[in-house]
């Protein structure tokens, strides 16, 4: 390895990236839940109508429901149970918190995946997180010899080719937090 290549590798590792590590495509889990109320009330008092207030303005009915949220967030779900025989509404028979802000999310967006040489490409990792890590830093390896840091960044490629742009998330804290966690997305640069 030449001195320049070694210097880049050291700089990349300081940013939280390793030039030898494989960075897969992002796999972003959808913010969805499956809920089942069969064990939440006294079945002898039934039949019941189950109403789920999903915390985002959505109401679903049924003893078991599935719901996907439009954005990652923290939601309080409330189950109201209507006793059909008596008309009694048992408000907040059960409540629970669904918190997607505490899930790891290694992802970034690209303004365009096909560009021309010299055209600006914007990269955004503002939603990336790896709880319970603290002081997370984002490092970029554009695979064209240039590196950068920051959650939102622009870059221009000077040569045509296909580049597997890497975003690395590194934080401090317990467990694997000091490790670099990376994902990649291809960008095709045309002449």
- The assembly state of the depicted protein chains is single chain
The average pLDDT is: 85
In CATH terms, the superfamily of the largest domain is Immunoglobulins
The assigned CATH architecture of the largest domain is Sandwich
The shape, in one word, is elongated
Termini distance?
Answer: 29 Å
- SS element count, helices: 1
The ordered H/E elements are HEEEEEEEEEEEEEE
Low-confidence stretches: 1-18
Structural class: mainly beta
Placed side by side, the strands forming the largest sheet appear as 8-14-13-10-11
Helicity range: under 10%
Question: How would you describe the overall organization of this protein?
Answer:
There is one protein chain. With 191 residues, the protein is mainly β. The protein folds into 2 domains: 112 residues, Immunoglobulin-like (Sandwich); 69 residues, Immunoglobulin-like, CATH 2.60.40. The protein has 1 helix and 14 strands. Strands 8-14-13-10-11 form a 5-stranded mixed β-sheet, with helices on one face. Strand 5 and strand 6 form a beta hairpin.
Provide a brief overview of the structure:
This protein is mostly beta strands.
How are the SSEs placed, and which strands pair?
Layout: H1 3-15, E1 32-36, E2 48-53, E3 59-61, E4 64-68, E5 74-83, E6 89-99, E7 109-110, E8 114-116, E9 120-124, E10 134-141, E11 147-149, E12 152-156, E13 161-172, E14 181-190
Parallel strand pairs: 8-14
Antiparallel strand pairs: 1-4, 2-3, 2-5, 5-6, 7-9, 9-12, 10-11, 10-13, 13-14
Notable traits:
191 residues, mainly beta, Immunoglobulin-like, 5-stranded mixed sheet, 7% helix, 46% strand, elongated
